[in-house]
Amino acid sequence: MSSKIYPSEIQAKDGEEQTKKIVRTWTVWKKSSMSFVGSDGFSVYDGEGKLAFRVDNYSRRNKYLLGELLLMDAIGRPLLSLRPQIMSMYDQWKGYRGSDGSNSKTNLKSHLFTMRRRSFVRNNDDIVEVIMSAGGGGGCAAIAADFTIEGNFKKRSCKIRARGGQVLALMTPKQVSPSMVLGKDVFSLFIEEDVCAELIMAFIVIMDRIC
């Protein structure tokens, strides 16, 4: 894989003002790490260019046939399972810890968040809401807040905000030089240091399906 998709020294910005908090830089490649013909997914690299997260899906099927998606770590251990709610007009999804999403006996205990469009009307600048489960427990759910995601996902320009409005993460086109921006399959993700990266990445995976 070309080193050009590795994170560059771009500073995250919110409008014209640089982010003052410490941020971690990730590079998201919209490609399955399995590299099979016809496969689809995500490969996520940290600031040192090491594989951190992956999503491997073997066909880009309609959500009614898709079933569960798994966000995994670099060696394939399941972190979060993501399931579409088939009859939802708002493109609603639910996230579960590990691979428990398909186990009805553990769904209530492991349910971490619900994510959906704010409106059933589709447009290029949708606002998506995330409601954290009250029984989610520790770990990523330690961020005791709901989230909103705003911007234009297709243009790789989105902000993820906490309930109070502060920007926790930014998604931007991947810039490798002042005059060169990569295509939409590779983009940058900036996440504040104390924010759970796997949770933010789960939101990005769902946004890709919603949009």
UniProtKB/TrEMBL annotation:
**Any Pfam family matching the protein:** LOR
Q: Family assignment?
A: Belongs to the LOR family.
Q: What is this protein called?
A: Uncharacterized protein
**Organism the protein comes from:** Dendrobium nobile (Orchid)
